[in-house]
TrEMBL record:
Region (Disordered): 1-29
Segment forming the signal sequence: none
Protein name per its UniProtKB record: Zinicin-like metallopeptidase
UniProt biased composition (Basic residues): 12-25
Superkingdom in the source lineage: Bacteria
InterPro entries per UniProt: Zincin_1_sf
Length: 144
């Protein structure tokens, strides 16, 4: 044991600083990037919407070949109708600058759905409805 000199405190241990400052362990994600559990909610929604669009596209492959599906978080505030209901999707016809686009709004759809199966069904109805508006066909012809 070393003798202490007057007025000096005990020597500190020199340890590298730990990232576990408050006892909460890991500060990084538990899953690596390619693992499905690491996907965000918006990525999972976009994947489900893409699967539903593929099923609708199989009902009219020639007409929907150039149609693009886009996912937006929420519609603009100006998209409210006179009753105050929020639109779930929108279709933009093709122009010389851009292809025809079907846009689905994630947040209104997720809040209305009570389960994953319900979300798939609701997405199928919205995408089929928008595709029917675009093509001038009956929605029953395009439902997945």
């Amino acid at each position: 044991m070393r003798p202490r000199l007057a007025g000096m405190s005990s020597p500190r241990r020199t340890r590298p600083r730990s990232r576990d400052r408050h006892g909460r362990r890991l500060r990084s994600e538990l899953f690596r990037a390619p693992v499905p559990a690491a996907r965000t909610r918006s990525e999972r929604f976009a994947r489900i919407a893409g699967d539903v669009m593929d099923r609708v596209r199989r009902r009219a492959p020639e007409e929907l070949a150039g149609v693009v599906l886009a996912v937006d978080t929420a519609p603009l505030a100006s998209a409210l109708d006179s009753l105050g209901t929020v639109e779930l999707g929108r279709v933009y016809p093709a122009s010389p600058e851009r292809p025809a686009t079907i846009v689905v709004h994630r947040m209104p759809l997720v809040t209305r759905a009570t389960s994953l199966a319900d979300l798939r069904d609701l997405l199928g109805e919205v995408i089929a409805e928008q595709a029917a508006l675009l093509l001038g066909r009956d929605i029953e012809d395009l439902l997945p």
